Structures are given as structure tokens and as C-alpha cells.
Amino acid sequence: MRIAGSWFYNKKKRGRLIWAAAGMACMAAGCCAAFYMQVSLHAPTEVREALAMDESVKKVAITFDDGPNPDYTEMLLAGLKERGVSATFFLLGKEVEQYPEIVKKIHEGGHLIGTHSYEHVNLSNLTDAAAIEQVDKTNAAIHEIIGEFPEYIRPPFGCWKPNLDYETTMIEVLWDVDPKDWATSNASVIAQRVLGDVGENDIILLHDASESSVLAAFKIIDELKAQGYTFVTVEEILLE
């Protein structure tokens, strides 16, 4: 577990706890027990209330990296809207700057937007200054379009420098299920890889960069909804 400037998401679903920046002050005061805090304590009131109303709902989060894509993101958004599903999109800054209208559509569709770096580079291989620039530049581009700064980051390849937690105050979000959809053009294969591995409160990793991935997402959603799952954003999964 790392210390985070804001929140940290531990990929293992049995350990979804955070280290809060405020915890440093707690340690200095000898209040170590306060260093661990449930994310739900800091969640928006409306989200906490919604979760309290029905804790029996089987939840799963579907996420998409590397967008927005001019060929497939809008196709994906249409399918998500048709199915009444909320998703999380981790966007690349350079794509955000090229396709701002698609970013607006993601936001207006009620989906959660996070950061995926500016150029899809391994942030752990960069200097601190260069890594921070990758994050800040992307956040600024997103803010310019939707008027909000992202709170969540999925670092490319899942590689993150622990000290960046202090510098960026982003919530790092990884995943539970990765079908490696980039490695095949067979939507059915992608879907089966997910369906054979997914469980309650899992975070599914996909990309909106190919037709096969989008079609696989629809297959996954349709099957999991038939099994009684509700699709939520990663924010709600973190509150479990």
C-alpha cells in the first residue's frame, strides 16, 4: 500500500482502503489508528446515501482506456446509452485535444472521466517533472472542455511512481479483469475472457480503440445485466 496525496486504490478487492494525506498529520500526532480511513467517509453525500439505500446490488465497473477515439468512441457511447450503463473513461491528453466534442459527449452521457497520461508513456520511466507534466497537461485539457478536473488516474501499463501521489493528488485506479482486448480482433473471445473471470465489485479494463472491443463491451454488458449486475463508475466501486 502506498501513501497517496488524495486516495489510493488497492487493486485487490479485499483491500479497497486508502491512505489519506491527512494521515500524515495523524501519524505525527500519534493517532495511527486514524491513518486508515474508508473511502466512503470522504465520498459525496449523494453517493453515500445511494449506496446505503441498497447495499445488496451486485456492482461491476467497465472502463475504457486510450480514448477518445474518432472512429469508435461514439459507437460505444450510443450502445452504453441504449443499455442505460455508466462507464469510466481514462483519456489520453493528446486525443482529448484533438477530439474535444467527443469528450463533451462522454461527459454529457453521465460517464466518469479520468486521466491516462498525455502520450501513453510509462510514467515510472520519466523524471518526476516529466511525469507530472503528463498528468497536469491532460487534466488541464479535460478541464478546458468539461469544466472539471479529473480526480482519477489509470497510469499506462499500471506503472506509477509512489512519490507522484504527493505531487498530483490523483486517485490511482488499476483493474481486476484484463482480457487484453488489444491482442485480438475477436469480440466473442474478448467477452468470454471477461465473463469467465469477472466477479462482484470488479473493475473491467477495455479500450475504445477498435470495433471488436466495443462489440465485446456490449456482449459483456448484456450478459452481466442478465446475471443481475448493475454497472457503475469506478468511484462507486471504490466506496465498497
Automatic annotation (TrEMBL):
Specify whether ATP-binding is a keyword of the entry: no
A single Gene Ontology MF term assigned here is:
hydrolase activity, acting on carbon-nitrogen (but not peptide) bonds
Per the record, the GO terms for biological process are: carbohydrate metabolic process
Q: Per its UniProt record, what PROSITE patterns does this chain match? A: NODB, PROKAR_LIPOPROTEIN
Q: Which domain of life is it from?
A: Bacteria
Occurrences of domain NodB homology (ranges): 58-232
Q: Which UniProt keywords apply?
A: Hydrolase, Metal-binding, Signal
A cellular component annotation (GO) from this entry: membrane
**Record's signal peptide:** 1-33
Output this protein's name: Peptidoglycan N-acetylglucosamine deacetylase
- Species this chain originates from: Roseburia hominis
Q: What is the lineage of its organism?
A: Bacteria, Bacillati, Bacillota, Clostridia, Lachnospirales
